[in-house]
Amino acid sequence: MTTISGYEYETVTTSPVTPEELQLLKASVLFGPADEAALRQAGEVLANQIEDVLDVWYGFIGSHHHLRAQFSGPDGEPVSRYLDAVRGRFGQWIWDTCERPWDEQWLAYQNEIGLRHTPYKKNRTDRVESTTHVPLRYLIALIYPITATVRPFLEKSGRTADEVDAMQESWRKAVILQVALWTRPYAPGPW
């Protein structure tokens, strides 16, 4: 285990994605220095609202059977300890997205996140019996709710409309970029 900012990360191997490829992905979503600054600002705004954001996200997932199933056991009932463990990591992911440097260690953990959605590692971290994988289509489709639902929390900051727009767009770009990274383990051929 590696500890960063008080959170313990499972030791992961290096990412097959190089820092140079990350730079190309950043360019592909038009993520630049202004976005880095806006994302840090979003991190400051969201820091005390993470549990509230998670409540919204869990409410959304819980209200859709096909999404809730990804956290359910063979009996179809949600596995509470699995939901709780994932919630902690999901909250940490919000902070990591905004505050951690996007370096080789961050890239390695993005690879780990991707793997945990696939048959290679889903259920192993938390030692649960649930679906074998999260269908890639849901991972991609969830980009919208994970980005759109953050805006009301950014607006609570009292920042100007332009600042909120900048934070929202940097968050959206960051989520799209990370989902692109998470798709790598799903890719049967050249990623």
UniProtKB/TrEMBL annotation:
Entry-linked InterPro entries: Globin-like_sf, Globin-sensor_dom, Globin/Proto, Protoglobin
Record Pfam families: Protoglobin
Superkingdom, natural source: Bacteria
Gene3D superfamilies listed in its UniProt record: Globins (1.10.490.10)
SUPFAM superfamilies named among the record's database cross-references: Globin-like
Gene Ontology molecular-function annotations: heme binding; oxygen binding
Descriptive protein name: Protoglobin
